[in-house]
Give the backbone structure.
Amino acid sequence: MKIIVTAGGQGTKMWPYSRQAMPKQFQPILNGKSTFQYGIETFLKQYSPEDIFISTKRKFIKYISEQAPQIPLKNYIVEPDIAKDRGPGEGLAFLTLSMRHPDEPFFVYQSDMVREPEQAFLKMVNDAETLAIKQKKFMTGGIKATSANMGADYLQLGAQVPMDGAQEVYAIDKFHFRKNTIQETKELVENFHVVSHWNHTCWYPDLMLDAYKKYRPDWYEKLMQIKDVIGKPGEDESIKAIYETMEKGATEEVTRNVMDSGDAIAFLLPFRVTDFGTWESVYDYFSDGEQNYYDGELASHNSTGSIIKTSKKKLVAISSIDDLVVVDTDDVLLIVPRNKLDSIKDLQAVINKQSGDKYL
């Protein structure tokens, strides 16, 4: 098994802590440790550094080398510093493993998430490898849907797949892209055997590239052009020139079709998954839902439900405020109500118009 740790995202919803120059996966969110570091340390408990590959942008290599010095440089899969979403970036990773380890399955790990407990997660990865070798089917993860979540895609499950041990594994009958209304989502959750989709992809690189060829032939064509220039003079410049012509898109533009084909499997994830994608997810992870979450020195009076995070060594004093997000960095102070966190993207647009990307 080869592990692909993806670490090339921007994490704009956790601005101003997450920046274009140093996004959230490299920031010390977990008591002085980044989620990227947490993931690498987890895998090193079961896998050799030689088996771990890191897919990232060129501008983030310095953080990779600082936070994961155990991983050999030859295992860096470096995409150009161009925002193309996950489809092209992960496609480059699948191509790399196809060229170097075509006969071994891979597992894709998104580095901005935390899985707990670690041992349950590692056992699931091991079981996925066993099943991949046995059936060679596409695999991903799902969590039982207990309520309608407008932000989730769903997997409609079919027959249970026999599996030794406590893992629950099912055939996937259909991929449901997130619905347009809460009523549609509720009807799906209440009337069908569905789970919310959480990407924990396991498959073989050549089979994945075959799926790219079938469902996104434009991406596949560009990846084959990249294959032709790898190892030749001017490799980096040639890859960049090809890569920048690829259309943006999520990997699901390929994998959702594989899941609809009836030849895919879902593991019900037997562990807690926290996606550190927003400040609300940070609050949910660290707080008890009533008190304030703070990182730094805080004096609070008659205040609850707020997130207070500062990079400076100073006292933050709050009184008679509830449900605010206050993030203080060296050059930006953000104050926004917790129920208005979606407005961060609009605020970034205002800042970009006013000051360019200086503060982004």
Observations:
- DSSP finds eleven helices and 17 strands in the chain.
- The radius of gyration is 21 Å.
- The CA atoms of residues 37 and 97 lie 22 Å apart.
- The longest helix spans residues 118-135.
